[in-house]
Design goal:
It is a single chain. The protein is an alpha/beta fold. The chain has one domain (3-180): Rossmann fold, CATH 3.40.50. 54% of the residues lie in helices and 11% in strands. The chain has seven helices and five strands; from the N terminus they run βαβαβααβαβαα. The chain has helices at 11-23, 40-57, 69-77, 83-101, 119-133, 146-156, 167-180; strands at residues 3-7, 27-32, 61-63, 106-109, 136-137. The protein has a five-stranded parallel beta sheet, sandwiched between helices. 39% of the residues are buried.
Length: 182
C-alpha cells in the first residue's frame, strides 16, 4: 500500500476525494498548508472544519497552522507570472518536500477536485515539483466528485467557503456580487 501525502485546500474538497482515493488502496495522510488564506479568521474556520472532518472520519491530518500573508504576497503576488500558478506551486512544493522528508511514496492535492481551479496548471506544476524532489505526483481528474463533496460537506455540517482563499479572490467575489446586485 502506497503512502500518500494529500495536500488539503479545505475540508469540503477532502470530503469529496477521500473515499475515492482510499478505494484505490492508498494510505492517506492529509497535509493542510495554505498561507494564501486571508483573513486569519477565515484560516481558523477552515482549520476547524478540517479538524471536525478528521475527527468524524478518523482521518489523519497534519495542519500547518501559520497565518503568513507576507509569504503569500512574496511567493505568489509579487513574483512574476500568474498569481494562481505561483500559489499552487508554493503549496505543492511544501507538500512534496514534507512527503520526501517523512517517507511518503507520493503526493497529490484536493485542488484537483474543484471545477474552479486551473486543473492543467496544477497537474503541470505537480509533475515539475515531483521531479524536483524525486517523488511521484499522483494525478487524477477528481472533478466528477465535486457535487458529492458539496452534498457530503453539507450533511456533515462543514464550513463551506465562498472563495478560493486569498484576499484577491475574495475581492473578485465581492466585486462580482456587487455587480450582480445592481
Amino acid at each position: 500500500m502506497k503512502k500518500m501525502l494529500l495536500h488539503i485546500c479545505c475540508a469540503p474538497c477532502l470530503s469529496g476525494v477521500n473515499e475515492a482515493l482510499l478505494s484505490e488502496g492508498f494510505d492517506i495522510t492529509g497535509y493542510f498548508y495554505n498561507p494564501n488564506i486571508h483573513p486569519e479568521e477565515e484560516l481558523a474556520r477552515r482549520i476547524e472544519a478540517l479538524k471536525k472532518y478528521s475527527e468524524l472520519k478518523k482521518f489523519n491530518s497534519i495542519i500547518i497552522d501559520g497565518y503568513d500573508i507576507g509569504l503569500f504576497n512574496k511567493e505568489a503576488v509579487d513574483r512574476s507570472g500568474d498569481r494562481c500558478s505561483n500559489c499552487y506551486r508554493l503549496r505543492l512544493d511544501a507538500t512534496a518536500k514534507h512527503a520526501v522528508d517523512n517517507g511518503f511514496d507520493l503526493f497529490s492535492t484536493t485542488l484537483l477536485l474543484s471545477p474552479y481551479q486551473k486543473h492543467g496548471i496544477i497537474r503541470e506544476l505537480g509533475e515539475n515539483v515531483a521531479r524536483k524532489y524525486g517523488i511521484e505526483f499522483y494525478y487524477r481528474d477528481l472533478r466528477r466528485f465535486y457535487k458529492g463533496s458539496v452534498r457530503i460537506s453539507k450533511e456533515m455540517g462543514l464550513y463551506r467557503q465562498k472563495y478560493c482563499g486569498c484576499y484577491l479572490s475574495r475581492e473578485a467575489r465581492d466585486e462580482q456580487s456587487s455587480l450582480a446586485s445592481k
